[in-house]
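Sample entry (246 residues):
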Amino acid sequence: MNRPHARNALGKVFVSELLEALAQLREDQQVRVLIFRSAVKGVFCAGADLKEREQMSAVEVGLFVQRLRGLMSEIAAFPAPTIAAMDGFALGGGLELALACDLRIAASSAVMGLIETTRGLLPGAGGTQRLPRCLGVALAKELIFTGRRLNGMQAHELGLVNHTVAQNEEGNAAYHRALTLAQEILPQAPIAVRLGKVAIDRGMEVDIASGMAIERMCYAQNIPTQDRLEGMAAFREKRPPKFVGK
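Predicted structure, serialized as tokens:
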């Protein structure tokens, strides 16, 4: 994300560009991991573009927030694992974007929060749904009701991010930690990883018996793959597997 004059705020054009990029990446079977990062130092994403929103009618606001919600849903539904590398401010819609990712890394200097209630708003791009699924209902309510901001360490203590790292002079420590995490994922069987994501995401929304059925269906899809046979052969031959995504 590189919209420095607006601190990566989510405006109409920016949202359209993100949706277009996601659509292209979704079709690329070579993509194993997708990292969301900022090229603007000190900022991940400042949330919705409120200056732009001031110029909108009530109807336009409703339509735009619906589009913003759709963007977060597209990120959440991206077939490969997604990582948010938060090296700076991730407020409102910026944190909602990170919550739509599978994994989150924060620098110690990052500041994040669903601060919409301090602006006379409420989270409208998935925050009221994804934050309680991440942290539990009571804690999510406390953070949304108060509009509280958290630093990277506090976010890690609460379980909002997977890892927190000390910020470096370049201001991209979270991005480098995200790359390291991505490098751990890359050698694994990509079809199995993608199906594991489906099984977890869909299974979390249903009772455990239905979740087991989802897992069974995902497992069945993986059985005919070349990568499963390669994994068995590599184990038998005591060598690292070479997965090809087929």
